[in-house]
Design goal:
Elements (H helix, E strand, L loop, with lengths): L3 E6 L14 H13 L1 E5 L4 H8 L1 H6 L2 E4 L4 E4 L2 E5 L6 H13 L10 E4 L2 E4 L8 H14 L1 H13 L4 E6 L3 E6 L14 E7 L9 H9 L6 E4 L3 H11 L1
Parallel strand pairs: 1-2, 1-10, 2-3, 10-11
Antiparallel strand pairs: 3-4, 4-5, 6-7, 7-9, 8-9
The chain binds 1-O-phosphono-alpha-D-mannopyranose.
C-alpha cells in the first residue's frame, strides 16, 4: 500500500520564536504548505496558546493539533480528547521547593501550570514579558538550571511513573512516562512521518518522539532538528 507522508511540527522554537506569533512571511508560506500537505502540530503548549500563535486559519486547516504533548487533541477547533491526569502532591511539593531554591529572582506568577495530562513548570512564571524571558534564557544558558531540575525530578519520580523534559525556552514539561510527544505516533501507523522540532537533544521534549520515529526503522521517516523557525522555513522552501 502506498503510504502518505505526514508533516508533524513542534511550535515554540520550530514554527515561531517561543511564545510569539508566526512571522508574517512564513505564515503566508505555511498556509499554502498546509493546503497541499498532510500537516499536524505537536506541542507542549495548551490549545489557546497555540491558537494565539498560529492563528485560527492555520489551526483549522491542519489535520490535527496534539497539544499538551498529545494529552489534549484538537481537530478544526474541536477538542476531541483530554487526558485527565493531574500531578500528585509530593511531586508538586518538589516543584514548589525548586522554585524557592532557584537563584533566579524574577517571578511572574503561574509557575506550576496544570494542563490536560501534563504540567508546565517555570521558575520565571508564565506571566513574563519578553525582556524577563530573555533574562531567564541567558540565566539558564549559563546555569543549565532546567536540565538540573529535570534530572533531579526524574531521579526522584521516574519510579513513580513520571517524567520531566526541558521544553520551550523557559520551562519544563512533566507528564506520566510515555504520555509525552511519542504517544502520538500510534496514530501514524499508515503514514510516513517527517517531524520538525528544536528540542531533540537528550532530555528535550521532542526527543521521545524522535526516538519513537527512529525505532520504526523506516527509510521513509525523517526527523529534522531545527535551530529556530527560520531554519524550518528554509528547509521547507528548499524542499517544496
Ligand atoms: O512546548 C513546550 C513549551 O513551549 C513554551 O515554553 P516557554 O514559554 O518556556 O518558551 C510554551 O508554549 C509552553 O507552554 C510549552 O509547554
Amino acid at each position: 500500500m502506498h503510504k502518505l507522508r505526514a508533516y508533524v511540527f513542534d511550535v515554540d522554537g520550530t514554527l515561531t520564536l517561543s511564545r510569539t506569533l508566526m512571522d508574517p512571511e512564513f505564515k503566508k508560506f505555511f498556509k499554502k504548505f498546509v493546503e497541499y500537505h498532510k500537516v499536524y502540530i505537536v506541542t507542549g503548549s495548551d490549545y489557546p496558546k497555540t491558537l494565539e500563535q498560529l492563528g485560527k486559519d492555520t489551526m483549522h486547516a491542519v489535520i490535527r493539533s496534539y497539544n499538551c504533548s498529545g494529552n489534549s487533541i484538537w481537530e478544526r477547533g474541536e477538542n476531541i480528547f483530554n487526558n485527565p491526569w493531574t500531578i500528585e502532591a509530593d511531586a508538586n511539593a518538589f516543584l514548589e521547593n525548586a522554585l524557592q531554591e532557584s537563584n533566579f529572582k524574577i517571578r511572574t506568577g503561574t509557575h506550576i501550570e496544570q494542563r490536560p495530562g501534563m504540567v508546565n513548570f517555570s521558575v520565571l512564571g508564565r506571566g513574563a514579558t519578553t525582556e524577563q524571558r530573555a533574562a531567564y534564557v541567558d540565566y539558564d544558558a549559563d546555569m543549565g538550571e532546567r536540565a538540573v531540575i529535570a534530572t533531579q525530578f526524574n531521579a526522584l519520580y521516574a519510579s513513580t511513573g513520571l517524567n520531566a523534559h526541558v521544553a520551550g525556552a523557559t520551562g519544563i514539561d512533566i507528564a506520566p512516562i510515555g504520555k509525552d510527544k511519542s504517544q502520538i505516533l500510534k496514530d501514524f501507523d499508515d503514514m510516513h512521518v517527517y517531524f520538525y522540532g528544536d528540542m531533540m537533544q537528550e532530555g528535550g521534549n521532542d526527543r521521545p518522539l524522535k526516538n519513537a520515529i527512529e525505532a520504526r526503522n523506516s527509510t521513509q521517516d525523517r526527523t529534522f532538528t531545527v535551530t529556530d523557525w527560520k531554519h524550518t522555513f528554509n528547509l521547507l522552501k528548499e524542499a517544496y
